[in-house]
Each structure stands twice: as C-alpha cells, then as structure tokens.
Amino acid sequence: MLLVHKYGGTSVGDLERIENVASRIMKASDAGNNIVVVVSAMSGETNKLIDYATHFTTTPAKQEMDMLLSSGERVTAALLAIALQAKGYKAVAMTGRQAGIVTDSVHTYARIKSIDPKAMLDAINDGKIVIVAGFQGINEDGNVTTLGRGGSDLSAVAIAGAINADACEIYSDVDGIYTTDPRIEPKAKKLNTISYDEMLEMASLGAKVLQNRSVELAKKLDVKLYAKSSFSDNEGTLITKESANMEEVLVSGVVLDKNQARVTLRNVSDRPGIAAEIFTKLAEMGINVDMITQNVGIDGSTNLGFTIPQSELDNAKSVIESFDHDIGSMDFDKNLCKVSVVGVGMKSHAGVAAKAFRTLAASNINIQMISTSEIKISVIIDEKYGELAIRILHDAYELDK
Ligand code: ASP
Ligand code: MG
C-alpha cells in the first residue's frame, strides 16, 4: 500500500520519540508499504520560534515569520531521515518546496494551490522512504510560506490526495476520536469509524487530534483518514465517507462547547435589511455567529438573539453600538454553554431531538436556545449544567455500549 503517515509535535517531541517514530515507520516499510511521512516541529518548537521573533517587535513581518517557522518542521524531517538511514533504511528528507507544494501568498496562513508529486514519487520508486517537512510550501515567487497553526495535518492530507495514497494516518498522543471528552464522561468510548461531516461537527472533540481544515480537505479529496496514537498499537478511528451502515447508529457523540456567549438585542427596528446590516458588520469583524433567533415583530420592532464565541464579545459590543438608533437595548450572557448531539443516523430516524429534550427536562435543565442541522442538535443551556448534560445524554443514547 501507499501510505501517508503524519506525526505531530508530541510524537516527535525529543530524540527518543523520533527514534520511536523511526521504528514504527521501519515496521510499516518492512510490511511492504511505500510511505511518505509528514512531520510537525518538535512540540513547543513553533511557539519558541514565535517568542524569539516577538522579542524584537510585536509585529514581525509575515514573510520572515514563515522563513522562521518553517525551520521547525525541517529540523524534524532531517532528523527522522537521518535516524532511518542510521538503521540502514533508504530515506530522503524534503522541504515543502522539494515536495512540490505550491501555495498562495498569504504568509502564515497560506492555502495549498497545487502539489507536483513527481519528486516524492520518484524517490519512492527508488525505494526510499520520503520524509516531508509539514506546514509549509512556497508561493509562486518561490518564497517560503506556512499553512497556519496545526497545518502539518493539512500538508499530510493534501499530499495523500496528490499521490493518491491508500490512507493518511495522523499520529498524535491521542488514540482516536471518542464519543465524548473522557475527562467529562469516563465511560466515553473510542469510535471505530466516523464520517467526515460528523468529525467536522465534533471538531472540539477532535481538536487535539485533527486540524479542522484538514478534515474538510480530506472530505473534498476523498482521502481515508485515520487518527491513531504513536504511543500504542491501538486501532484508532477511521474518518471516511458516510456509508449506509453508519446511519444505523443514531448518535455518534455528544460535545460540550463552553466558549459561548449570547447577545440579545431588544426593540430592533423591524425593517427589511436590518439583519443583513448587523450580520454583515459582525462578519466583517471576523466574528463567528452561530445560532440566531428572531421573534415575530410587534409594533415595528422585534427582538434578535445570537450566540458567538465568548472571546469575541467585546468586538461584537462595539459593532452593535454602531447601530444605536436601530437597536433599543442590548444585553449579554456569558454563563452559557452549547451541548450538541451529533450523528448521521438522525437523517433517517425520527425522535432523536425529542429524546435529547426529554433527557434534559428529566434533570430539570432549561433549554435556552435550540438549533438543528441534518446531523446535529445543539442546545444552549446554563454553563453550570454543561457537564451533567453531557453525561446524561451520553447515557440516554447508550454511547457507552
Ligand atoms: N508546527 C506547527 C504548529 O505548531 C504546525 C503543526 O504542528 O502542524 O502549528
Ligand atoms: Mg498538530
């Protein structure tokens, strides 16, 4: 098989761990696989480099930041290749440029535009294990670029797509995706399989495991993704296309998001275009609005409520203040959380939402807002009930079974 392995910062955190990764790759190679390995910088390294730069100024030039930050991954790639060579294996380390990765010119947050996999495939045909420095490419002028934090996952998926790999295995210190956060519910179980869309909805559960953009890209390129641990031989979780038997499982996971705040606007002028103006301005400020509710207007005015990440509350306030004569008053609530029930099975089964509402009601938890999509039900509730809600919902859908 042709495989992409990606090892995160913790997995290559020191020389011993790099040696451990080398052993895993040797095993996969001995089993007859061709392998392209994508590596992150050693854990803490990228932050250390950022600290170095901000010693001089708080606003270092982004082109030079890319020059600086891309070096972290190059160190790991070279060391891993050297470790493999020392064991008698043929290996070659490549920068993003050598691997043929071309991006746009948005320094520190570049998007991959194309990959010419020729050099990687030639090396494989030469019997070499290819080690690519993740998180980087070059723009059309040949300047080095980086792909945003956690971007090595994206490199791995894009390379898997470009070489048409049989699978892309993402190794970290977590052995897969769980039905919920095991720190909240110790009965949480590791999922064998999950669809791309479920994974995206459960982003906060997988956040430590997989970068969201990489899951989106895997879906687009139809790359089979595995989340596995480099510290165990556990099976991991396969993230893949939705299949018919996935729908038999009603719910795959329950997710808690504590970073929620609600903005309530009262006596908003009830005229065409007002929502467009408010939400366009919020979007221009980069504020991510999640749920929105609007009441039926009475006497030319209405109430409008929406949720945003807590960290964006101050920005939202300043946007809303600029609408002073269209909005009567506003208030904010920070002591909220969002609990979501996720599962592709909801598409074809009725009553999944009703069960969530009944379960919360039985514990006297008041639901303040509700939103649903084809595969997700989210409720906004008081922050202090968040963890309880996760446990009783986990139980209600028998996710520990
Ligand atoms: N080293 C980069 C970061 O810390 C990229 C990565 O690890 O994926 O964001
Ligand atoms: Mg990472």
General description of the model:
The chain is globular. It has helices at 15-30, 45-54, 62-86, 118-125, 152-162, 196-201, 203-206, 212-221, 274-284, 313-321, 352-362, 386-396, and strands at 2-7, 34-39, 91-94, 101-103, 112-115, 129-133, 136-138, 144-146, 167-172, 193-195, 225-229, 237-240, 253-269, 292-294, 301-308, 327-342, 369-373, 376-382. A hairpin with a 5-residue loop joins strand 7 and strand 8 (144-146). The chain is 33% helix and 27% strand. An 8-stranded mixed sheet has the order 3-6-2-1-9-11-12-10, with helices on both faces. It folds into 2 domains: 2-173, Carbamate kinase (3-Layer(aba) Sandwich), CATH 3.40.1160.10; 254-396, VC0802-like. It contains 12 helices and 18 strands. Helix 2 (45-54) packs antiparallel against helix 3 (62-86) and helix 5 packs parallel to helix 8 (212-221). The longest helix is centred in the first third of the chain and has 25 residues, at 62-86. By secondary structure, the chain is of the alpha/beta class. Aspartic acid (ASP) binds at residues 9, 40-41, 46, 72, 134-135, 149-153. The site of magnesium ion has 5 residues, from loops.
